[in-house]
Amino acid sequence: MDQVEAGTMLPLMEAFYTIQGEGFHKGTAAYFIRVGGCDVGCHWCDVKESWNATLHPPTGIDEIVTEARRYSNTIVITGGEPLTWDMGPLTSSLKQAGIAIHIETSGAYPLTGQWDWICLSPKKNMLPVGDIHKNAHELKVIVYNKHDLKFAEEQAAQVSPECMLYLQPEWSVREKVTPMIVDYVMENPRWRVSLQTHKYLNIP
């Protein structure tokens, strides 16, 4: 097994310190680690350059952790689809450094790693696997059309009662779907609206 398959090296696309723009932790400072590799294939994905893992250099987790410690006490692992890879070695090293670790994932691959916060953002074309629904702290469904509201309820039925529920307009159709989401949340107040506030702030 090579080091990438073992999780001791990861195809690192980018890492950056910014403000979390979405979901429960929006507005808080966090260091994002974007891991390359994803075959979920959302047509509206705004980081399609992350899909091909071979375009992003395998980077040792020690190097990733050393850099992360310089910036923040909160790390967000995102992608691509980070669970394509074994997250155990990276999260173990981050935990030893005393860092809170969040993940943003579609759940399309089995859950690995140790997490303080799991944001599950399921996709219709590759549904979540394993027990990630019951482990999710936050369910965030991207809404591109009205049919996504039905999908959102199907996914919400599988998470724990404590899980936070968010509906987020897909950016390219936000003007069309945001009023629909607002109406839905007002009628179904267990849901909340999530916006990509980092895009409004013009930050990464």
From TrEMBL:
Record EC number: 4.3.99.3
Keyword Iron: yes
Binding sites annotated in the UniProt record for [4Fe-4S] cluster: C38, C42, C45
Protein name (Swiss-Prot/TrEMBL): 7-carboxy-7-deazaguanine synthase
UniProt keyword annotations, A-Z: 4Fe-4S, Iron, Iron-sulfur, Lyase, Magnesium, Metal-binding, Queuosine biosynthesis, S-adenosyl-L-methionine
Cross-referenced Pfam families: Radical_SAM
Enzyme class: lyase
Subunit structure: Homodimer.
Keyword Metal-binding assigned: yes
Function of the molecule: Catalyzes the complex heterocyclic radical-mediated conversion of 6-carboxy-5,6,7,8-tetrahydropterin (CPH4) to 7-carboxy-7-deazaguanine (CDG), a step common to the biosynthetic pathways of all 7-deazapurine-containing compounds.
Names of required cofactors: Mg(2+); S-adenosyl-L-methionine; [4Fe-4S] cluster
PROSITE patterns assigned: RADICAL_SAM
Matching SUPFAM superfamilies: Radical SAM enzymes
Location of the Radical SAM core domain: 25-204
UniProt cross-references to HAMAP family, sorted A to Z: QueE
Organism the protein comes from: Robiginitalea myxolifaciens
Residues reported to bind S-adenosyl-L-methionine: W44, C45, D46, G80, S121, P122, K123
Family: Belongs to the radical SAM superfamily. 7-carboxy-7-deazaguanine synthase family.
Coiled-coil spans in chain: none
UniProt record, GO biological process: tRNA queuosine(34) biosynthetic process
UniProt xrefs under InterPro entries: 7-CO-7-deazaguanine_synth-like, Aldolase_TIM, rSAM, rSAM_sf
Cofactor details (free text): Binds 1 S-adenosyl-L-methionine per subunit.
Pathway assignment: Purine metabolism; 7-cyano-7-deazaguanine biosynthesis
